[in-house]
Design brief:
This protein has about 290 residues and is of the alpha+beta class. It is built from four helices and 15 strands. The protein has helices at about 5-30, 40-45, 95-100, 105-110; strands at about 50-60, 70-80, 85-95, 115-125, 130-140, 145-155, 155-165, 170-175, 180-185, 200-205, 215-230, 230-240, 245-250, 255-265, 265-275. The chain has a 15-stranded mixed β-sheet. A hairpin with a 2-residue loop joins strand 14 and strand 15 (about 265-275). The relative contact order is 0.16.
């Protein structure tokens, strides 16, 4: 038996440890409410009157984050399925040569290389992911450069990729929690309802250009003001951290996502939600900046 004082010290240590565990991990879930899950995201996105249009932009100089150049566009939509589930679809056109225009890879990218990325997510009425599929191709060429498919069976998500480059062919398995959030890094989510500062949760992020799947830690960091559509808008700033990569999302107080920052090697990419009725953005020449 250890001396009484040592026993008391151990008891106090465990009481303090339990207090901090409760404060950091349990109480936020109870006091802040549950974070968004796939069902609430799909349901909220389904309230949009039609497809949402996004401008895909890049920041060439990180010292001037407001000077951006348009390199593509995206449309996203959530539709109610006949069985009560949801179909979350996206269509992306990305000027790959323009994306890399001011990087050391510009010579490799060449000119007039536009990628088309189509995504489809099938969500059950209960909010569980049933399957997803992404096709990456070059516009004007019928053959897919890469296809990523995922299916959920008995709590396990099985992901397979088929590519022109055999090195990208792979099969992976991951545990899947009910209503767990799964999305691809180039598909902006339409909404994140019910946000409060301090919430945190995990999500699976699929890279549509490589087929890799990573777990991202999502944290609602703070409320801030952003300039969107020429107005100052109050928004939640949400960070998604996967390994060394930290992406950011800005969502209005009602959960409508307005902007998403996706840092990729040598480039900061911004997906900017456009107001309803705005025309589809057109990729700009590398020498022009959008302010």
């Amino acid at each position: 038996m250890p001396p009484r004082l040592v026993s008391l010290a151990i008891l106090v240590y465990w009481m303090v440890a339990a207090f901090f565990l409760l404060t950091w991990e349990v109480l936020p879930e109870l006091t802040l409410g549950y974070p968004p899950d796939l069902r609430t995201i799909a349901t909220a996105a389904g309230t949009n009157p039609g497809p949402v249009t996004w401008a895909i932009e890049v920041v060439d100089d990180r010292a001037k984050p407001d000077a951006r150049r348009t390199v593509g566009s995206a449309t996203t939509e959530s539709l109610r399925a006949a069985d009560g589930g949801y179909r979350m679809i996206s269509d992306i056109e990305l000027d790959a040569s323009g994306l890399l225009k001011r990087t050391p890879l510009a010579a490799v990218a060449g000119t007039d290389v536009t990628l088309s990325i189509e995504g489809r997510y099938d969500v059950s009425p209960k909010g569980d992911l049933r399957s997803f599929e992404m096709d990456v191709r070059t516009l004007g060429i019928g053959e897919n450069l890469l296809t990523v498919e995922g299916k959920v069976r008995d709590g396990v998500m099985e992901v397979s990729t088929r590519a022109i480059a055999p090195i990208l062919n792979r099969r992976m398995k991951f545990p899947y929690e009910s209503k767990g959030v799964v999305y691809d890094s180039l598909r902006p989510l339409d909404r994140l309802p019910g946000l409060q500062v301090g919430q945190r949760w995990d999500a699976k992020v699929v890279n549509p250009l490589t087929g890799a799947v990573e777990t991202a830690r999502v944290t609602v960091e703070k409320r801030t003001l952003i300039d969107w559509n020429g107005e100052a808008v109050s928004a939640f700033e949400v960070a998604q951290t996967a390994g060394p990569i930290k992406a950011r999302t800005w969502a209005a107080l009602d959960g409508t996502i307005l902007r998403q920052q996706v840092p990729i090697p040598m480039v900061d990419m911004i997906l900017e939600r456009l107001p309803e009725g705005a025309p589809k953005p057109v990729a700009e020449p590398a020498g022009e900046d959008r302010r």
